[in-house]
């Protein structure tokens, strides 16, 4: 067993020795490690030493065998060493020369190396700057655009910067700063554009009246042109329709592109002469702030916010515009400024409607217009009620018509405005009636109630031209002569025509039919005749100091005015082209007015005569117990009869009464005389029947009989021609019987 182990150990040691001999020195460690790990390393050392001795012996044998060759080799090496030293010296010398010669080259090469390095760095820097410079330029451009308030271009620049340029250089720190600033810049652009919009809205609010004034001037020019074309149809080829006018007068887009870089606001426009063309409303306004802000908010995804803000602000401005000043009714300029602001507001909104897509819509415009229409009509009703000057009311009507025509040209319905004008027409008619009441009062107060004297043909024709009067007998009479009526007849007649003209002026441009105009004029004229003129005549007739002669002249005057009513009918027919026979045509009630005035004057004559008789009768002082009568009638009665004679003489000898004379003699004078006699008879009878008269003497009766005979004598004398037989004496028959 021990021998077997000894053999294995020997074999192992042999293997290790072979491995040591054949293995590289660097890798011998593991082999030696295996020896030391075993327990037989002593024996291995012995075996190793035995192997070394064997190799030494082999080396020695080999050296002995090759010794001569070794010596020869050494000799050769010694020779080579000398040659090598020479070569070394040559090489050293060559190297020294080469080094000396190459120092400049090395320096140049070092400089070239540095240059190449710098060139490479510069090239890399240029490449990087090529990427960075556009970013910096765009950022600088962005700042410049924001500084100059070109907000939409700034937003486009910001978009390019964010999506095109910054991604290429995103690893630089300054780019990260820019990226972080982009939301803030976008918000800043948004705020600045909104600020521009606010400035625009404020400017529009302040200049609405100028915009409206321009639009109304355009409408007035168009209306004047239409009138010219309608009067001269050959010129211009025909009348321009309202729709065409609307299209031509509608605002055109100025700087509509959101890329427009012009500043916002209202452009200053100098006042131009009337001869020059009125600038269009689009020439006054730069709408680019609205377009830019709308586009910016659309790009930023906040269009609804912008639309809501714009409409809210404009609705507020509409309420301010529609609030009339408290003293608007005092002058026409107050109304004009009010209308200009409203027109300016809706001209702007109409332009925005047609030049933007959805910022405002038709429903929104219609809602604003309905509100404006109701508030405007209410304001006009309130303020126009304060107007007492018909001239101002007429000017207001013309202004309202122009206001309505202007807005109708932009497509707004204005029927309610024309309906309201019919209401104002009633007020206008009332103001006219008040004015003409003053005119009639002045005419009646200043009249001398005497027939108009005419000294020559020129004056005669002038009066006949003013008043429709024809009388063949008067024309045959030589000059000087007199018209039967006083001056207030032609004056009143002409003022009635002036009133009709004034009514006609209000009906112009109201889009009324001829029948409606005719009806309106006739109704107003009837009010003038039946109320205003009638009241004025009644007041004159009822005055305390009016005389019988004046009353007679009033009767004559009203008779002639009554006859002139048919000429007034013809006058209205001529200006309205509506025949009186037309159905529903209103008739003039002038004849009734003048008849009533004449009857009132007659009654006043009768009343005045009776009052005078009463005054004379009050002077009667009968002594009912007198023993002897007087030799003649009582003094008071003689005076009374004298007064009546002179009065009726005036009645029947009024100058200038030609065909009217018979009417006055036959009716007024006869009735007045009969009424006076009856009243005198009744008054005398009352004296006899008074309660205080309880006894009568024969002398008193004889005296009373003398007075009655005086009255009968007056009746028989025919103070007024035309009575048949003893008709006038019959007034005293009852007294005679008593």
UniProtKB/TrEMBL annotation:
The keyword Transcription regulation does not apply. Residues 416-738 form the Exocyst complex subunit EXOC6/Sec15 C-terminal domain. Keywords: Coiled coil, Exocytosis, Transport. Residues 45-115 form a coiled coil. InterPro entries: EXOC6/Sec15, EXOC6/Sec15_C, EXOC6/Sec15_C_dom1, EXOC6_Sec15_N, EXOC6PINT-1/Sec15/Tip20_C_dom2. Residues 246-263 have a biased composition (Polar residues). One of its GO terms (cellular component) is plasma membrane. Residues 228-265 are annotated as: Disordered. Residues 47-216 form the Exocyst complex component EXOC6/Sec15 N-terminal domain. It holds the Pfam family EXOC6_Sec15_N. The keyword Ribonucleoprotein does not apply. One of its GO terms (biological process) is intracellular protein transport. Belongs to the SEC15 family. PANTHER family: EXOCYST COMPLEX COMPONENT 6B (PTHR12702:SF3), SEC15 (PTHR12702). This is EXC6B protein. It comes from Origma solitaria.
